[in-house]
Each structure stands twice: as C-alpha cells, then as structure tokens.
Amino acid sequence: MFLKxxxxxxxxxxxxxxxxxGRKVLGEPIVIFRDGEGHPFALQDSCPHRxxxxxxxxxxxxxxxxxYHGMAFDGKGRCADIPGQTKIPPxxxxxxxxxxxxxxxxxxxxxxxxxxxxxxxxxxxxxEDPQWAINRGPPMDVACDYRLMNxxxxxxxxxxxxxxxxxxxxxxxxxxxxxxxxxxxxxxxxWILNHQLAPFFSSRVKFAGxxxxxxxxxxxxxxxxxxxxVIAPAGSGAPDGRLAADTWLVDSFNFVxxxxxxxxxYFWFQLRNYDVxxxxxxxxxxxxxxxxxxxxxxxxxxxxxxLRSNPAGMxxxxxxxxxxxxxxLDKMIRAESLPIS
Length: 341
Known about the structure:
19% of the residues lie in helices and 33% in strands. The longest helix has 31 residues, at 279-309. The chain has two domains: 7-119, Rieske [2Fe-2S] iron-sulphur domain (Rieske Iron-sulfur Protein), CATH 2.102.10; 123-336, Naphthalene 1,2-dioxygenase Alpha Subunit, Chain A, domain 1 (Alpha-Beta Complex).
C-alpha cells in the first residue's frame, strides 16, 4: 500500500536539534540526527546489537551513539566505535536513508538509494519571495490511512459540511467540480461565482461584497497536495484570468507521510499575497487553519474506524478525484514491485 520510490516529509527542520528524533515512515522506524556541523542524516532506528532504538541514544560529535552499550554510528550507518574493543564486526551497521533539507522540511527517501533524485522534491514558487508571506503549521498526527487523507485533500465539497463554521457555508453547497488526471497528478477544481464568503475569508479579503472564488485541489502522487484559493470581487474577471489588485491569493502546500497502514502525519504551510509584513496575521492564519484541520482529523479518524468495521459499498460524484488518484497510485505501486528484467 506504500510507494517507496518517493520523497516523504519526515520532520520540520526545527524538530531535529541536538538530540536524535525517532519517526516511523511507511511502517519502518527511522532515526534522524544532525552531525557536528548540523547536517541531517536518517538511519534505521535499531541498534544491530540488542535492537534498542537508536533514537534513545545521543549525538556525540558527528556520531549517533546507542544508549545501551555505546556503539557509535556515522551518517552512513557504519559503526565507527565499539567501546572496549578495537575490532568492528561487518554486521555492525544499520541501513541509511537519503535525506534532504529543503523548504525548512526534512525529506526522506525510503526506496532504492540509487534512485533518490532531489530534483523530484516539489518546487515551491514564492517561498522566498518578499511579495509573499508564509505561515507554517505544526505537524499533525492523523489516525487514518494516508489514502483517506488524500481523498480529503482532493474533495472541495466536504468543506460545506465538515468546515461549515470555518472554511465553508451554504453558498458552497452543491457547486459541481471539474476533475482531471495528468500523469501522476489529479486535479479537482471549481469556481464558486457571486457568493457570500464564509467568515474565515470575509474577515481577511480587502474588498466588500460578493466574491468569485476558485478552489483548486491538486494531488501529486503519492501524497503531496497543492491547494490554491483565488478570491476576487464578483464579476471582476477572475475566472477569465483577469485578477484585480485586491484579489486574495493563498497557496497551501500539504504533505502527507504514511506512518503505517492506519496512521499518517500531516505537514503543511501556506503562502499568501496579502498582509505580507504582518506576523500577527501569520499567527492568526495558522491558528485558524489548525482549528479547521482539526475538524478534518476528527472526521477522518471516525471514517477510518467505520471503514474497518463496515467497508464502504458506494461512491458518488465527490469521490471521483480520490478514486482516480487511488487507481494511479495502485498502478505506481504495482510497477515498483515488478522485477527488473
């Protein structure tokens, strides 16, 4: 159920400091640590001696030292020191995983290390653009299969119900969506024309009255979602590409990392074109999105529990994007498992 040949977010950069940090990715325990110069590394989180998690150890210089008998490992997973003896057995090593630090995130590659190409990590336009502001959320643990989270990130229609008190309202109910697949991407989008914004947005846009709003939900398989909100004064031409000066733009980047078959971890940040020099708005936006996303987490945990006891027997239009994504993902996973001729 997992695609190994992909970059997954293991942690925010600030989560890994002087102490090692344990994570589980695709069901495999890993440990992340930084050497003396701050470079990050990821290893199998299991000492080969007695299998104590190395995340229970400590970082000494450039090495990760086991907390049981002091075996020390370098960033490649090779044992560099065994206290009390000079000979190091060949088996005294652990698997290392390619790790890249980008966009203030630590990305781990769980597949064949030879295929780990950092250029495949998603590009983030405007990340360091002074004309755009950024707000970052905390990592969020979600008690569901990562594919359910993917479904949610490809479904703008749920906003009217799950987020009725925040991101959605009655004006967003029943608006049809357009769905398309392009290679390893699935896009679900819709324009909601001449409608009254939910309070979450109406308190932030720089114009009064009705709005035209684009909801663009894009999943880049296996589990990265880019959600774009365009909110413009009604009738100003935004659906035709004419963006008025007071058009509100927010690009949300969402990274879902499978923990195991029943849990995932969710990382996210947003880029915006308004109040770019206002840290108070960044804090407020993060807090409001945390509140909204917590609404998702409650629903998804209940869905996971419900589907385990009584698997779903029907689909309807809102599931089209998620179902397309699942078919493509299944094909990618099957292709990965085929033997190389």
